Amino acid sequence: MKKQPILFLGHGSPMNVISENSWTREVSRLGASLSQPRGILMVSAHWVTRGLKIHDSASPKTIHDFRGFPAPLYDVRYPALGNHELAARVNQLLPEAELTSDWGFDHGTWGVLNFLFPQADIPVTPISLNAESTPSDFYELGRRLQVLREENILIIGSGNLVHNLHDVDFQNENSVFPWAQSFDQQVKELTEKGDLKSLLDWPQRDSATFRRAHPSFEHWAPYLVCLGAAQDFSKVEWIFEGIQNGSVSMRSAFWNP
User: Domain 6-255 falls in which CATH fold?
Assistant: First the structure.
């Protein structure tokens, strides 16, 4: 059985789902090249809970967790099934987690799976981000889940390596703020060096720079989970590099088995 890769995808604005741009084309191309996994474990920036939770339902609902966007976005559905077997297996690995039928597929999930696997024919199990976790906890979470790669499970993190909606330029998708580009480039360099310490302690080491890129933690945390699951994360392939709307990094990473 082939070991599955690890993916981290910048998902950005929900508008990407009803757009055609360089990011949507690249993610679609990647999806067409992947071997079909038995299931998908999804770590989205948009499911944050107190305590760790694992979604377990037969048919997870599509959640439109945003307001003020064009009507066609609210018609989008991602009808993949859930995966009780995978949810139970993840609970074996993470016994402190709670199984729940709450939540479903938020736009951090369907906003990327819509391009990776448009047929929605692979069962998907979301896990939450524990709001009480530290950066090291998120890395350790990924490390504990890495065995799933040997079981034909694809682990996907969905967030953004720069995500500042206070400064975002909604009028220009192609604008790039220098400070956002600088942070994004530093993430690239630290990852390629395998410098785990600098990535994990960034919020304390340089809090002003980090807080501008991430006023809150949730779009950064899925990347740390992916680093843990990838282990030798310096062997990264950047399947997409770029900034959208000034302050949202769409940089996306792929770690081959």
Answer: Protocatechuate 4,5-dioxygenase; Chain B (3.40.830)
